[in-house]
Amino acid sequence: MTDDYLDPTDSVAVPRKTAARPASLDGKVITLLDISKAKGDHLLDRLEALLRERARPKAIVRKRKPTFARPAPDDLRREIVGATDVLVEGLAD
Amino acid sequence: MPAGDTDLDEFFAHGVSDGLPVVPPTRARVSQALEASGRAGSELIAEVPPNYGRATVEKIAVNAVMAGCRPEYVPVVIAAIAAICDPAFDLHGVSATTNAPTPLLVINGPIRGKLGVNCGAGVFGPGWRANATIGRAVRLVCVNLGGARPGIVSMSTFAHPGRYTYCIGEHEEVSPWPSLAVEHGFTPDDSTVAVLAADAPLTVYDQRSRTAPDVLATIAGSLAVVESHKMTHWGDTLVVLGPEHARTIADDGWDKARIRRFLWERLQRPVCELVPGRDGGDGLPEHVLRKFPQPETDTTPIPKFREPDNLKIVVAGGTAGRFSAIVPGWSFARGSRLVLRKIASP
Question: Does a structural domain hold residue A10?
């Protein structure tokens, strides 16, 4: 074998990274994003109650994707990015 | 990627295989594939969700070579990649869902004969290089350019064997009706590829029916359990009529529109049979249930499929055997839809 092989991947594709985690939730705006799966609201209701019990967030905002089958629409993403410190995306089922 | 003595192992180590050995994409092989495409290697066909790697003609050709494609198959792979990257197909969802879909390719038109695409006996099975390697090339692009690596981005609970390769031709020569492509606005002389976000095929056995309503009643019974027996408002799904079943139906004078209407009407169930917790914990979602004050006794019919046109019909398979097949789509209300693309002549 004398030939080099060509790369089947796209080396310029941006690798995905998770966002930096805050040290505390106190004083933060937390968005709970329901992806519209069955019982997602049950999960996030419980999570909201626990957050209020255990931390002192500035606000807890509830948002909902139109469907779990597709990525969140751009306007919803922009709205969340501009107004929240911490995002929790809820799956459920 | 440097060549080496253990070149096949290298591809596994880099995670760019589907678990089977690949054909090493040497410059010479890729050049041949590019030449057969008749296009510039740098031409961008699509950015492949969910990681949006750039599917240039050259990158597609590299993956096609690895899949074992002959150079002349590359235009089909290019058309299929353009189709799965159409937003209507929702490849982001298809590649990331915990459900099991994968693109099924249905090829129509003269290119089937030119490339030796199997449309007949064993149409979903092995033994045909065009079907095996074109479908496999699409999967490799989903992984290598789209990032759909199992357990990392692709979180399917089960997946299914069609994720290795899933490509059929419509058996137009024995079909009594216009092809899938012609129904979607193409001419019989166009070569096209259709992509459906598809579950595994389910064979429907009916040896004794000799009328259109009898055959279709059996097929409807199998369609009723797509996703689950209580799933409703489902979308694009493929009904693959075996040639013998198709002949029986056509001999009664039925066209595809009448078949669709018959199946759609038969596949409705009253609200009272779809209440969660009755005959299974799943059922109509809350926002639908709220429309019915007394769902436990309400007999309003709810359709299994949103519209008759969601039932896509092709004729395929061998000419012996009274079987058909159902290929469920992954087709929630705002989810994936069937997409067709013309295959460009090089």
Answer: no
Domain that holds residue A65: 29-90
Q: What is the pLDDT of residues B55-73, one digit of tens each?
A: 999 999 999 999 999 999 9
Least CB–CB distance from A10: residue in B2, B59, B333:
B59
Which amino acid type is present at position B252?
D
- The answer to whether A74 contacts chain B (CB < 8 Å) is no
CB contact under 8 A, B54 and A1: no
Query: Is there a contact between B137 and B57 (Cβ–Cβ < 8 Å)?
Result: no
- ipTM of predicted complex: 0.90
Number of domains chain A contains: 1
Q: Per residue in A9-65, pLDDT tens? A: 997 656 667 888 999 999 999 999 999 988 899 999 999 999 999 999 999 999 999
Is the residue at A82 inside a domain? yes
Q: Is B4 on the interface with A (CB under 8 A)?
A: yes
Read off the pTM. 0.94
Tell me whether B40 touches chain A (CB under 8 Å).
no
| Any A CB within 8 A of B24 CB | yes
Crossing angle for the helix pair B27-37 and B57-67, nearest 10 degrees? 120
**Judging by beta carbons within 10 Å of its beta carbon (0-12, 13-18, 19+), is residue B83 exposed, middle or buried?**
buried
